[in-house]
Amino acid sequence: MLDRPAAEALFLQNLAWIERVCASLCRRHGVAGDDADEFASWARASLIDDDYATLRKFRGESAFTTYLTVVLSTLFSAWRVREHGRWRPSAAARREGPLAVRLEAMVRRDGLRLDEAAERLRTAGQTTLSDRELAALLARLPAHALPRPVPAGDEVLAETPAPAAAADLRALEGEAEARRGEGEQALRRALETLEPEDRVMVRMRFWEELSVADIARGLGVAQKPLYRRMERVLARLRRQLEGAGLSRERVRELLEEAA
After folding, report:
1. Distance from CA of residue 155 to its chain's centroid?
2. Side-chain-facing half-sphere of 182: CA atoms under 13 Å
3. Taking the model in full, what pTM does it have?
4. Domain architecture of the chain: domains with CATH
5. Within 13 Å of residue 59, how many CA atoms lie on the same side as its CB?
6. For the segment 245-258, what is each residue's pLDDT rounded down to a tens digit?
7. What is the rounded CA–CA span in Å between residue 133 and residue 117?
């Protein structure tokens, strides 16, 4: 079991990951605006509570980011129960199977539009059904009364089903993989717009990890102007990636990953 200073250090080192997972959980479950901010704030406070008690339980049996993702998923379930009450799938959804239970929760509990829920289910690999087929499935399910809020407490977290956290982890991993793939494709397209020598220069710098001096010798150009040229090329890549819809944070991550 970790001591307090070690747990606090891990918390501070992984703040960006915590924010990212909180945002992903909120997107996946249709929570936005002030509610999303409230959950992120509550989750951070929960991780800090009792001298980082939850983080001190980390035993190194997985990557710390994986452990954090499962913990935050469990906290999200607890927060939703505290704020909105415990959700129970209808008997009809249970008879139809796991897909119907998930679809019912996304539309009837989380308030997603059917097309949004359908796209998320397909992206997560939980179905290949079309929107029309999923609409027919939803139509077979009865209207579901909204749950009532329940008092907050340790019992809420303790009663959160482990499979929900595992499902969120799989979905978030799938989302992260899709995000990486989209970013890499955007980076490849941006590279293709560069002049051939600039493209070679970028590949030598980031993929082959050569110094600017080595690149200058390899290209037969002066070293000093090459620094300024590299800055201009990277600025162009950033503009193109941001123009493709990537956030500044994601562009920075892509270029750091390339490095």
Report:
1. 27
2. 14
3. 0.46
4. 4-86+147-160 (1.10.1740), 91-139 (no CATH), 177-258 (1.10.10.10)
5. 1
6. 776 666 666 665 55
7. 13
